[in-house]
Amino acid sequence: MENKLIISPSPHIHGGDSISKNMYGVLIALVPVFLVSLYYFGLGALIVTAVSVLSCVLFEYLIQRFVLKKEPSVGDGSAILTGVLLAFNLPSNLPVWIIIIGSLAAIGIGKMSFGGLGNNIFNPALAGRVFLLISFPAQMTTWPLPGKLPMDYIDSVTGATTLSMINEGVARLPSFADMLLGNMGGSLGEVSAAALLLGFAYLLVRRIITWHIPVAIIVTVFALTGIMYLIDPLSYADPVVHLLSGGLLLGAIFMATDYVTSPMSRDGMIVYGVGIGLLTSVIRLFGSYPEGVSFAILIMNALTPIINTYFKPKHFGGR
Amino acid sequence: MILIAIITLGGIGIISSGLLYLASRKFEVYENPLIAQVQEILPAANCGGCGYPGCAGFADACVNAPSLEDLLCPVGGAAVMSRVAGILGKDTAGADPKIAVVRCNGNCEARPHVNQYDGAGNCAIASSLYGGETGCSYGCLGYGDCAAACTFGAIIINSSTGLPEVIEDKCTSCGACVKACPKNIIELRKKGPKSRRIFVSCVNRDKGGVARKSCSNACIGCNKCEKECKFEAITITDNLAYISSQKCRLCRKCTAVCPTNAIHELNFAPRKETSLEDSPKTDEKTNQKNI
Amino acid sequence: MLKTFRIGGIHPPGNKLSAGKKITSIPVPRQVIIPLGQHIGAPAQAVVKKGDQVKAGTLLGESGGFVSANIHSSVSGKVNKIDNAVDASGYKRPAIYIDAEGDEWEDTIDRSETLVRECSISSQEIIDKIAQAGIVGLGGATFPTQVKLTPPAGLRPEILIINGVECEPYLTSDHSLMIEKGEQVLTGVTILMKAISVDKAVIGIENNKPDAIIHLKDLAKRYTGIEITPLKVQYPQGGEKQLIDAVVRRQVKSGALPISVGAVVHNVGTAYAVYEAVQKNKPLIERVVTVTGKGVANPSNFMVRIGTPVRDLIEAAGGMSENTGKIIGGGPMMGKALTSADIPVTKGSSGILVFSKEESLRKPVHNCIRCAKCVQVCPMGLNPTLLMNATEFANWELAEKNYIVDCIECGSCSFTCPACRPLLDYIRSGKGKVMGIIRARKS
Q1: What is the pLDDT of residues A211-257, one digit of tens each?
Q2: DSSP string of chain A?
Q3: Which of B123, B266, C9, C335 is in Cβ range 3.0-4.6 Å of B145 for a Cys bridge?
Q4: Chain C 92-121, residues with CB within 8 Å of chain B CB atoms
Q5: Which of B174, B169, B145, B139 is closest to B157 using CA atoms?
Q6: Which residue in the set C324, C378, C415 is minimally distant from A13, CB to CB?
Q7: Which residues, in sequence order, are bridge partners of residue C24?
Q8: What is the dihedral of CA A92, A93, A98, A100, to 10 degrees?
Q9: Residue C410, helix vs strand vs coil
Q10: How far is residue C79 from each of residues B73, C34, C44, measured CA to CA in Å?
Q11: What are the angstrom distances between the C-alpha of A40 and each of A45, A138, A249, C28?
Q12: Does the pTM of the predicted model rise above 0.80?
C-alpha cells in the first residue's frame, strides 16, 4: 500500500465559509459607524470602544481557559464583535470601570454562562447594555453632545437624545440631515443612519445576513409610528424621526440579526422582526423609557426557540 | 370593608376547593399501589436494559405479569428481583448474572491501518461508509458509540489499544452498548464463577488467510479449539469460532491451542509456563468445584 | 430568466478540468472484477462458474428480483473465481473475477459506428431489451431503468425529463457524451419516449455547457417532441425532484414518486446506454468515466470497461502522485471515498476524482452558531442543524417529524456550514435509522 487513503463521508469539498469570516465581516461593516463616532465623539469613542473590546476578549479568554477549561477561541472574532457592539450601545463619556463591568456581564452572564458561542439565549452585547442600564441609569442616560473630533472624555458637554426630547415633549428636534449623518446626541454607534445603512449594504452583498429581520423591524416601526402620527401629529413624532433616531437601525441591522439568538426560517425571521418592531414602537410611544430597541430585542430573543418550533422552513413539495 | 374582603376571599376559596374536588374526582386515574412499591426498590437508573421504557415501565410489567421468570432488572440483579418477588408474592427465576464482553482484540499493533478516517467520530456513521480503517471489516472501529451509550461509565476506549474495555464492577449488563455497536461486537455473556469466563475475542468471518492478513489476532477458523474442547462448547460457523457460555466448563484448553490468541480468558490465575499439560487439569478440578 | 429549482441551492466552483476532452478508450485490463451488486436492489445471481469461458457481453449474473439488474462480462476470457471483493461501499461483497484473453465480443452485438435511428419494436419489447442489457440509472443512483419505465398502475407519465445537468463539480462525462454522441443520445431519448408512450421530452442542461446546448438544439430539430431547456447553474439541480421543479415547476410531495406529477426522469448517459442496448444489442459493459482532480496530470474522459480497477484509469490519466490523499468515486459533493485504488469501476461510476492530501482533510468542527445558512441552502426545505442534533441525541421522533427521510444527501448543508459541522454525516445516519423504524412500524 503506497500511502493511507483518507476516507470521509461526502461532501468532500467545503465552501470555505467560517465563523471568523462572518464575524470579521460584521466588524468590517461596522467600520463606517466607528469612523463617524470618532468624528463626533472623538477621544471618548476611542476609549470606550478600546476598553470594551479588550475587556470582552480578556474575559472570554479567561473564562474559557480557567473556568470552562477548554481551548480558548478568541480568534474567531465573536468576542471582539461583542465588545464593539457593546461599546456602540454606550455613551462615549462612560467611565472605564463601568465599561469593564458591562463587558463582564456581556461575556460572563450573556454568553459563557450558557456554554459559549452558539448556546447563548440572549444577545451578549445587549445583555451587557441592559445590565448597565438598570445598574447605572444616570451614567447610561447622559449622552455627550457631538463635536468635531473632541478630545475630552469624562467631562464632555452632555445633552438629551432625540428620543428623550420627544419623550419630554421638546419641540425643537435635530434636522433630518443631522440625523442621517449622526450630528446628534446618543450612544456611540447609533447616531449616523447613513453609516449604519452602508454597513447593512455590505452585509447583504457579502451574504452575511439576509434582509428579512432588519426590513421587518424597520417597516413595522415605520407603520406603527406612522399610524400614531396620522392620528395625532402633535403628540407623536414623525415616523422618519423614529427610524433615524435612537438605536433602531443599529439594533435592527447589527443586534437583532445576531445568528445565535434569531430564528432560522424565513417566516420565523419575519415574525421575529415584526415582534421587535411592535415592542419597540409600544415602548417608545407609550412606555416611560424613551428607547425600547434593546428590550424589544431581548424579549424576542427569549421567544426565538418557540418561533423556531412553529415557523419551520418552507418544505419542498408542501406539507 | 373588612366584611367584603372576608366574603370575597372566603367565597373564592370555597368555589376553588369545590372545583378542585370535582376535577380530581373526574380525572382520577387508578394506579395499582404495588407499582409504586416495586418502583421504590428498583435502582431508578432508567437504563432500559430490562427491555421496558424505564423503571416505571418495568415495575408495571412486574406487577401485571403472572410470574417473574422472564423479567430481570440487569442493574439490580438477583437481589432486587427477589425483593420484588417478595412484595408481589411471585416466584423469581434465578437468572445468571451477565456482563458485557468485547469480542475484538485487533489492537493497533495487530491490525495495521490501511486508511485514515476523517469524518464525524461516530461508529454508526463510519460503519455506514466503509468497513474500517484496517483491513478487517468486522472489527471494532473505536469511535466509542458503546462508551457514549453506557450510562454507568462502565465501558471506555483504551487509548493505547484503541479498543473498548469493560470495567467489571460498573457493568450492569443493561445491554445499551450491545445495541449501540453497529458491528455487533459486544455480547452479554454469563459472568461466570468468580467472574471467570472464556470467549473468542473476534467476530471476523473472512477466510483464515484473509483474516490473518488483516489482523494477527483474528480468529482464522482453524478448528483447533473445536477439536480440543471435550464439552462441545465450541462451534465454528463462517470461519469463526464461538464458545457457548452455557456449555463451557472453563477448562482453558482451547486458549492454549489457539494459534492467534483470539480466545481470551479473564480473571484466571496465571498459568504455570512449565507444565502446560498439567495445568488445565488442575484448573478443571477447581472450576468444577466452583460450578 | 433561466429556469432553476425554487428552494435552497449552492454554487460550488465548477472545476470542470476535463471539459472539452475527447472521450478516449483505455486498453482492456488484464483482469476485471465485476461485482454482482452494482445497482440499488437485490444483487444479481451468478450464472457462470469458475473456469467458464466468456466473451464481452456474455451474461454473468441474472437479475435477482424485481428491483435488480443483469450483469454482463465486459471482456473476453476465463472466469478466475467468484469471491468477495471490496467495492465502493467499503465492504467486501460478491464479485466475479475474469482474466482477460483477447477481446472477443458476443456475435449479436453490433459494434459498428453507424447510426441507427429507426426503432420499430413495441414499447414492451423496448423495456424487455433494456432489462436484458442490465441498464441502470447512470447518473450515479443506479436504479434499474426497466423498473422506472414501468409506472405503477393508475399513474400515467406525461413528460420525459432527461437529466443533462451534471451539476456535480469536476464531472464531465455526460457533457462529453452530449457533444460527441448527440445523435445517439437523442435516438435513445426517442426510444425512451416510446417505451413510456409520451410525446414530449425535455433535456435540461445547465448554462455552463453552452456548446452542448447549441449542439443538441441543432440536432433536436430533426427529432419530434424533444426540447432542450437551458437551466441556471445551481447545485443540486441534477437531483430528480429539483430537476422536475426546475423544468416543469411541479414539486413532488414528500414520499411520492416523480410519476405522481407525471414526470419520468432519466440521465443522458442512460439514454445513450438505451440506444446501444436497443439499436445495437449491446449490454451495459462500458461507460464514460471522468478521471479528474488536481491530483492527476491529465484530467480526461475515458470509455471504460466495467470492472476495470480504478488504478488503471488513474495511470491512463497520468498516474497517481505521491501526495494523493483521497480517491473519490463520483463527484466531490455526493461521491464516495474509495478505500483503495484496486476497487473496480461499476455501472454507477460517473467519475474518479483524485484529491491531494491538503484538499482531502476536513477543517476543525466548531459549535453551531445557528446562522441558519444550512436552512437557507437546503434544497428540500429542511432544517439540517435540527436534524443533526436529533440524530446525535437519538431523538428519532423529532427527526421523523422534521422530514429527515426527505433528505437527498446532496451535501449542501455541510458544504455551507461556517462552523464546518458534519451535518450530512449525522443526517444520513439518522435517515437510515428513521427509515428502519418506519419500515418496522409498517410491517
Answers
A1: 999 999 999 999 999 999 999 888 888 888 888 887 899 999 999 99
A2: --SPEEE-PSP-------HHHHHHHHHHHHHHHHHHHHHHHHHHHHHHHHHHHHHHHHHHHHIIIIIS-S---GGGSHHHHHHHHHHHTS-TT--HHHHHHHHHIIIIIIIGGGTSTTT-SS-HHHHHHHHHHHH-HHHHT-EEPP-SS---STT--EE--HHHHHHHT-S-PPPHHHHHHT-SSS-TTTS-HHHHHHHHHHHHHTTSS-SHHHHHHHHHHHHHHHHHHHH-TTTS--HHHHHHSTTHHHIIIIITT-TTTS-SSHHHHHHHHHHHHHHHHHHHHHSSSS--HHHHHHHHHHHHHHHHHHSPPPPTT--
A3: B123
A4: 92
A5: B145
A6: C415
A7: C302
A8: 50
A9: coil
A10: 56, 11, 16
A11: 8, 22, 18, 78
A12: yes
Q: C90 CA to chain B: closest CA distance, Å?
A: 4
Cell numbers at residue B23, please?
Answer: 376535577
Which segments of chain A have a pLDDT < 70?
Answer: 1-2, 169-172, 319
Closest Cα in chain C, distance from residue A2 (Å): 8
Task: Indicate yes or no: CB of B113 within 8 angstroms of CB of A4.
Answer: yes
**What Rg value do the Cα atoms of chain B yield, rounded?**
27
Reported as a single tens digit per residue, the pLDDT across C212-222 is: 999 999 999 99
State how far the alpha carbon of B128 is from the alpha carbons of A7, A233, A245, B125, C91, in Å: 12, 68, 57, 5, 10
Measured between alpha carbons, how far is residue B260 from residues A66, B138, B203, B211, B254 in Å? Answer: 48, 17, 13, 11, 11
| CA–CA min distance A70, chain B (Å) | 19
Q: Is C55 on the interface with B (CB under 8 A)?
A: no
Size of chain C, expressed as the number of residues it contains: 443
Q: Which three cell numbers stand for residue C41?
A: 436492489
Closest CA to C242 of C3, C1, C5, C2: C5
Q: Which of C312, B173, C236, B36 is nearest to A10 (CA)?
A: C236
Whether residue C135 has pLDDT greater than 90: yes
pLDDT for the residue B285: 41
CA distance A290 to A162: 9
Q: What nine digits make up the cell of A132?
A: 448597565
Question: What φ, ψ does residue A47 adopt, rounded to 5°?
Answer: -65, -50
Give per-residue pLDDT as tens, B197-235.
Answer: 899 999 999 888 888 888 999 999 998 999 989 888 999
Q: Where are the domains of chain C?
A: 123-280, 373-442
Mean pLDDT calculated for residue range B151-180: 88
Block residue for cell numbers 463539480:
C169
Distance of CA B9 to the CA centre of its chain: 60
| ipTM here | 0.89
Tell the residue number behind the cell numbers 412500524, with chain if given: C441
Checking DSSP bridges between strand C159-164 and strand C263-267, what pairing results, if any? parallel
Q: 3-state DSSP call for residue C113?
A: coil
In the block, residue with C-alpha cell 455613551: A91
- Please tell me the class of the C123-280 domain: alpha beta
CB atoms A12 and C353 under 8 Å: yes
SS (H, E, C) C354-406: EEEHHHHCCCCCCCCCCCCHHHHHCCCCCCHHHHHHHHHCCCHHHHHHCCHHH
